[in-house]
Design goal:
Layout: H1 2-11, E1 18-34, E2 37-55, E3 58-64, H2 69-86, E4 103-107, H3 119-133, E5 139-157, E6 162-180, E7 183-188, E8 195-198, H4 209-224, E9 227-228, E10 232-238, H5 240-252, H6 257-260, E11 290-292, E12 315-319, E13 322-323, H7 330-336, E14 344-345, E15 354-355, E16 359-362, H8 369-374, E17 378-390, E18 396-408, E19 411-417, E20 420-424, H9 425-430, E21 432-435, E22 442-451, E23 456-464, E24 467-475
Parallel strand pairs: 4-6, 9-19, 10-17, 16-23
Antiparallel strand pairs: 1-2, 1-5, 2-3, 5-6, 6-7, 6-8, 10-24, 11-12, 11-16, 12-13, 14-15, 17-18, 18-19, 18-20, 20-24, 21-24, 22-23
Length: about 475
């Protein structure tokens, strides 16, 4: 691939200030079983390249699904023509310094290759999961799925960049629906599609898999006779699988620099955060430390370089409660005059890279799970996201969970069903009073973060310990 791309770059005869080629090959599989019956067995392959051209301070783009020299040359000419035509109306002039030369590679860690099990063997495992989930006749539906992706990308540029990345990822999901008369409850393994990681098929069968599968089925039945979550203000304890959504929606999206600049207002909304808030805004309590970290081994959105070649490094977005920098690519950083990160990412070869989340993690502090619960006289502990609602400025939100426990005098007591909570983003993060330690820090991921026009669904990862928030409004009822 390298020789062909170098040849292509050398062949361009257009007076551009800078040219980049991002070529991508991606193979994905999806297996889904419902009620022990296979429903989906799919495999897809896609290949293509995005050409990016800088002319007179303006960037132009064109994609092609052919890696032939003539097709890449034609795409480069199209991108050049677009950039030249648009340069009369640019809102900010870009320079070659926004696309510095970089050379390197990144490969996902893995033990077992993605083809180490046959489709039949994977289906047999998913069927067994469904059978094991059905612990009671009140389980009316079971579901289990597994998806894999192998993605290779090559990035070359006219100023000498050469980056190769190979990412192997796997996502698993299983859950049940339980019913007793008019009462219906759902329980899944950490919420919808949260168990997504980089690695191989060794991630398909975790050490405690069958214990966890049975537990999910048993908890669904348990919820049918559980008390409704009370309506009150109390201490709220969130498990890491719910903290994943909390970080994503109320920290990640509000500090995307392109949203703050208004680029996403037509589709994904804006933000309550302003440009002058960086370095100044007290986003939360001093216990709040959020990092952008694509360097975590095995986390779902890890990489060595973003899709424009910027080197990925760990950076504090919020440190001791104060907002430090935004989720913004090199061009967003110069437009806004705000420090950002290596987060220009594209969902495929036929999409331009835009400001995206990657791995956003809440750093651990101290306190085992037992210590955290023991220090609470009254509260509610919640796991696994079930529903979410947040306004387009990412300010007011209401989230629901699948499973909850009442906390009384330092102990988990009654199971509660239909637990929900609501707050505003600043109020909520200022109420953070306890952050767990590394023993209860867990990471999750999802492939479904949507943004951009045309839409781009992309992978993100989030890690967090168990956290305690004081005086939060919780309530029951299905949402």
């Amino acid at each position: 691939m390298w020789s062909e791309l170098r040849k292509t770059i050398a062949s361009f005869d257009i007076p551009a200030d800078w040219i980049g080629i991002r070529a991508v090959k991606e193979t994905s599989t999806t297996r889904l079983v419902r009620d022990a019956l296979p429903q989906v067995n799919g495999k897809s392959f896609t290949v293509g390249a995005m050409l990016e051209v800088l002319v007179n301070g303006c960037l132009g783009y064109a994609a092609t699904n052919s890696l032939e020299l003539s097709s890449l040359q034609a795409a480069a000419q199209t991108a050049y023509n677009q950039a030249l035509a648009a340069s009369e109306w640019w809102i900010h002039p870009f320079r070659e310094s926004e696309r510095p030369k970089v050379v390197g590679e990144y490969k996902s860690p893995f033990i077992e290759s993605l083809d180490s099990l046959s489709p039949g063997e994977i289906n047999d495992l998913l069927v067994r999961i469904c059978q094991t989930l059905k612990v009671d006749d009140k389980i009316v539906q079971t579901i289990a799925s597994a998806s894999t992706t192998e993605k290779e990308s090559w990035f070359v540029s006219s100023n000498g960049s050469e980056v190769y990345q190979k990412i192997l990822s796997i996502g698993t999901h299983y859950g049940v629906t339980a019913q007793d008369g008019a009462i219906v409850q759902q329980r899944s393994n950490n919420g919808s599609q949260a168990n997504c990681y980089q690695g191989g098929l060794e991630l398909l069968q975790q050490e405690n898999l069958w214990h966890r599968v049975r537990q999910i089925g048993e908890q669904a039945v348990e919820l049918l006779t559980a008390e409704e979550c009370p309506t009150t203000r109390t201490n709220l304890v969130l498990a890491p699988d719910q903290m994943m959504l909390q970080i994503h929606e109320s920290v990640g999206h509000p500090i995307e620099i392109d949203r703050i600049l208004g680029d996403e207002r037509n589709y994904a909304g804006g933000s309550f955060v302003n440009k002058n808030d960086f370095g100044n805004l007290v986003y939360g309590s001093p216990l709040m430390n959020i990092t952008f970290d694509p360097t975590v081994p095995g986390e779902f959105a890890s990489y060595g370089f973003d899709d424009t070649g910027a080197v990925a490094t760990k950076e504090y977005l919020v440190k001791e409660g104060v907002l430090q920098r935004g989720l913004g690519s090199l061009e967003s950083q110069v437009r806004a005059g705000v420090a950002g990160v290596a987060c220009a990412r594209a969902s495929s070869w036929n999409r331009p890279a835009i400001d995206r989340m990657a791995n956003l993690n809440l750093e651990p502090l101290n306190g085992t799970f037992e210590d955290i619960i023991a220090g609470i006289e009254h509260g509610v502990y919640m796991e696994s996201n079930r529903s979410w609602s947040i306004d387009d400025r990412r300010y007011k939100f209401q989230f629901g969970c699948e499973y909850a426990k009442l906390i009384e005098n330092g102990k988990l007591t009654k199971t509660l069903r239909n637990p929900n909570y609501r707050a505003t983003t600043p109020e909520f993060w200022h109420s953070l009073i306890k952050v767990g330690d590394a023993t209860n820090w867990q990471m999750y991921g999802t492939p479904y973060c949507g943004k951009g026009e045309p839409n781009q669904a992309i992978s993100v990862g989030h890690g967090s310990p168990v956290c305690v928030f004081a005086n939060v409004e919780v309530f029951g009822g299905g949402v």
